[in-house]
Structure formats: structure tokens, C-alpha cells
Recover the amino acids of this structure.
């Protein structure tokens, strides 16, 4: 199949490389010249494990190319739309400018029989509206919606071996034709019995935002329990273990700590509420406002705990921040709780020296006022407190004795409940965490 992928960011670049790996002929298109130059040279424009290797092997086959010129999309069979849908400035709603621009610029180049496949996360109702733009430009072209569930850090694996596929299709013969194109694109996954849900546009759009709303709710649920644990002396990690043994609940996504962030969950739950409001169903999702509020409270709680560790004042204290990405195995700092806490600590007078294995360049662009180190040890040198905010493996494996010899004062905030408190206390550290005595 001849495929274009429009928008080559965290989702699109991985999707393009994986589709080429699966044997398709792929053209990646983006308006960002620097990104396209990097990808064309076989360089990943962001950190994603496995992507550089995949770009090298796919480019070597001659099946993967990149361009900034949308007119080169002419003659291709299927076009994935993978551009961003960020939160609108000053509003909860999603900004659909990029999706609209991508579809509008693609429309004049559509050939009869082409299928436009939406991947971006969009408010319900978007696909039906875009289908009108596609049909007006090329009556024999079809629009399908195929939401993406990849996790940054596991994006290559998740794209090559998805845990499910969802097709949102129009009614009638056009839907059948789009389905056969999608079936051909995903032939390998389907042959491996990947579950497939075929539905209408609105269902497919709602699947994606419902999944993210559920995950966000699960995280905020355990973080709400952590708040109660904090005022009672209970241990939220033991509570999560115990309730997680119940198969109906499950242990995953029950890690209390600094909460969720990134380019998806926060903006998706806000856009979902905004859209429900427009549709007159706002009451149904008011709980998501609370989910968001619990999540944001975690950040101020982390700042407060750091102040407590420093005997009531952050002023002039040297604080080593370990972790800036919104999660490990990513350099993504969009709405990162870690970066937010680092910046709040500085705003309240601390001297912040931050380190992250991958996210320093991105963090520096957003917060040039912070100081950055080249290693955890450099950040922690003579620090009054260490705050662990993103649970990279190298931080989880820190040796409390060796690290204790570097710092000025042995104060640690475990913002992700990923260290063994007994071990750290035994090595002479004052250990604090969220929801843990
Ligand atoms: N990142 C994830 O883990 C993930 C997972 C599932 C779904 N999504 C969804 O996928 C979409 C993309 O997310 P992302 O994280 O890849 O964003 P991103 O910001 O990393 O990438 C978006 C890309 O689109 C490009 N772009 C913007 N307008 C364009 C246009 N008119 N033509 C061509 N390219 C254009 C941008 O230059 C950028 O490279 C969002 O809707 C997001 O919610 C993301």
C-alpha cells in the first residue's frame, strides 16, 4: 500500500517508520523543515527507544521518504492525519487548526478511491465534519477515523504490535471500501489476531478520549487516596498493592505520586469536558474537573514537602531535581509535572539544578531560567535536598550510600514512590514521599 503520514511528531514519525517496516511505501509529510531534514537524514527528531534503528532499516529499504511538500501526496492510496491537537490558549477545548489545515491542504491532491485516515485525538464530531471537506474535494475519496493508543517510550512496539485496532467508518459502501484499505494496511496485526472494533465515526472518536479519561481517573483516584493516607499515616503504596490484587481493579496505573502530564492526558480530559459542554452533556463529565484538580494538587504538595524537608524555607537552598520529562523513556516535557515542580521550586526561592537523561534540551527551551546539570551526581553535588520527579531507571537504582556522600544534606523527596524508604533511611537520609509515612 502507498501511504502518507501527515504530521511527523511523536505519533506520526513512529507511525511512518513502522508502516515502512511492515512493507508499505511511506511518505512522511510535515510543515517543520528541521524535523523533515532530520528524518530524511535518518535521525529521530526526539527521543523514542527503537526509533533510530527503525528509521535506519526502513530508509535502507527505500520505502520511507520525507517531504515538506504536500503536493507529493498525490497518487498515494491512504493518508494518515497525525498532526497535533493541543489545548487552545486560555480555554479547555482542543485547537483543531492543525487538523483542519492538514485535511484542507491534502484535499486537492486526493485521487479517486483514496482514504484519509484520522489518527489525531479529536473532539467527537470532528470526523463527520472533515468527511464533508474530503467529499467536496474528491467525491470518490473516503475518510476513516483510526485512533492511536501508543505510549511514548513504547511507541515502536505499540505501533508494530497494537493491543487493539479501532476503525471509525462511514455508513454504506464507502465504509466497506475504507475497511478493506485499513485491513490491508494492518494485515500483519490482524493476522496476529489483534482485536478489532469497527464502529461509526463518533464511537471511534469517543473510544480514544474515554480511554484517556479512564486512565487519568485511575491515577487521580489513587492520588486522592494518597492525600487521605498522608493525614492518617497510612501507606498508599500498600493500599495500591492490596486493592490491585483484585482482578476487577488491577494494579497498573495505581502508582500514587506526582500525577499525569504529557501531550495527551491533561489536554484530552479538558477537551472532552469542553466538547461534552457544547453537546449539552456537561454534567456527565464534571468528575473530570476533579480528576484534573487532584492531579494539579500533587504538584503543589511536592513543593510543600520539599519546603518541609528544608525546615520551612526554600530561600537560597540548593535543590537537585532528578527528572524533567513527563515520564521515563521520553524527552517529552509537554505539561510535565516534573518540570512544573522544578519551576515552582525556583519561583519560591530555591536554587534548582536539574538533570534528566533525555529531556534537558526541551526543558531548557521552556524554562531557560533553570540551571541544568549533565548528570545526577553533578546536580546533587552539595545539594540541600534531592527531589526525584521522573522515575527513570537510573534514578530508581541510585545507591543511597554513594549518593549520600555527594549531597550537602541527606534530604530526599521521592515524588514517584519508586525508592525503598527503609534503604534510604538506613543510609541516613530524611525520606519523604506523597501518601507514604
Ligand atoms: N504522543 C502520543 O503519545 C500520542 C498518542 C496517541 C495519540 N496522540 C495524538 O496524536 C496527535 C499528534 O500528537 P504528537 O504527540 O505526535 O504531536 P507532535 O506535536 O509531536 O506532532 C505533530 C506534528 O504535526 C506537524 N504539523 C502541524 N501542522 C501540520 C500540517 N498542516 N501539515 C503537516 N504537518 C503538520 C507538526 O509540525 C508536528 O511535527 C495528537 O492529536 C495527539 O493527541 C498522541
Amino acid at each position: 500500500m502507498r501511504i502518507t503520514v501527515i504530521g511527523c511528531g511523536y505519533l506520526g514519525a513512529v507511525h511512518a517508520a513502522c508502516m515502512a517496516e511492515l512493507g508499505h511505501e511511506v511518505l512522511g509529510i510535515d510543515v517543520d523543515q528541521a524535523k523533515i531534514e532530520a528524518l530524511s537524514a535518518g535521525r529521530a527528531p526526539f527521543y523514542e527507544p527503537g526509533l533510530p534503528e527503525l528509521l535506519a532499516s526502513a530508509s535502507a529499504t527505500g520505502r520511507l521518504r520525507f517531504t515538506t511538500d504536500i503536493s507529493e501526496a498525490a497518487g498515494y492510496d491512504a493518508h494518515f492525519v497525525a498532526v497535533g491537537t493541543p489545548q487552545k490558549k486560555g480555554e479547555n477545548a482542543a485547537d483543531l487548526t492543525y487538523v483542519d489545515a492538514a485535511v484542507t491542504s491534502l484535499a486537492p491532491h486526493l485521487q479517486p478511491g483514496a482514504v484519509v485516515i484520522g489518527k489525531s485525538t479529536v473532539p467527537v464530531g470532528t470526523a463527520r465534519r472533515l468527511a464533508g471537506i474530503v467529499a467536496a474535494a474528491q467525491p470518490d475519496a473516503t475518510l476513516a477515523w483510526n485512533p492511536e493508543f501508543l505510549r511514548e517510550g513504547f511507541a515502536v512496539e505499540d505501533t508494530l504490535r497494537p493491543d487493539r485496532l479501532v476503525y471509525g467508518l462511514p455508513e454504506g459502501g464507502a465504509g466497506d471500501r475504507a475497511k478493506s484499505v485499513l485491513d490491508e494496511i494492518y494485515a500483519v496485526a490482524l493476522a496476529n489476531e489483534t482485536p478489532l472494533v469497527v464502529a461509526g465515526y463518533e464511537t471511534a472518536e469517543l473510544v480514544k478520549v474515554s480511554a484517556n479519561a479512564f486512565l487519568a481517573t485511575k491515577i487521580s483516584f489513587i492520588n486522592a487516596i494518597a492525600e487521605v493516607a498522608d493525614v492518617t499515616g497510612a501507606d498508599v503504596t500498600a493500599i495500591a498493592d492490596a486493592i490491585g490484587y483484585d482482578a476487577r481493579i488491577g494494579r497498573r496505573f495505581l502508582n500514587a505520586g506526582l500525577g499525569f502530564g504529557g501531550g495527551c492526558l491533561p489536554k484530552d480530559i479538558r477537551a472532552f469536558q469542553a466538547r461534552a459542554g457544547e453537546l449539552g452533556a456537561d454534567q456527565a463529565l464534571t468528575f473530570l474537573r476533579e480528576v484534573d484538580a487532584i492531579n494539579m494538587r500533587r504538584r503543589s504538595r511536592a513543593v510543600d514537602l520539599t519546603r518541609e524537608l528544608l525546615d520551612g524555607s526554600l530561600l537560597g537552598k540548593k535543590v537537585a531535581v532528578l527528572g524533567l520529562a513527563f515520564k521515563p523513556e521520553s524527552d517529552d516535557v509537554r505539561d510535565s509535572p516534573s518540570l512544573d515542580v522544578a519551576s515552582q521550586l525556583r519561583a519560591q526561592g530555591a536554587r534548582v539544578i536539574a538533570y534528566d537523561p533525555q529531556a534537558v534540551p526541551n526543558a531548557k527551551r521552556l524554562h531557560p531560567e533553570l540551571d541544568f546539570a549533565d548528570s545526577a551526581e553533578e546536580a546533587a553535588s552539595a545539594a540541600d535536598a534531592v527531589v526525584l520527579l521522573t522515575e527513570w531507571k537510573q534514578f530508581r537504582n541510585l545507591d543511597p550510600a554513594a549518593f549520600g556522600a555527594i549531597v550537602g544534606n541527606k534530604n530526599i523527596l521521592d515524588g514517584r514512590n519508586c525508592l525503598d524508604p527503609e534503604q534510604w533511611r538506613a543510609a541516613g537520609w530524611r525520606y519523604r514521599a506523597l501518601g507514604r509515612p
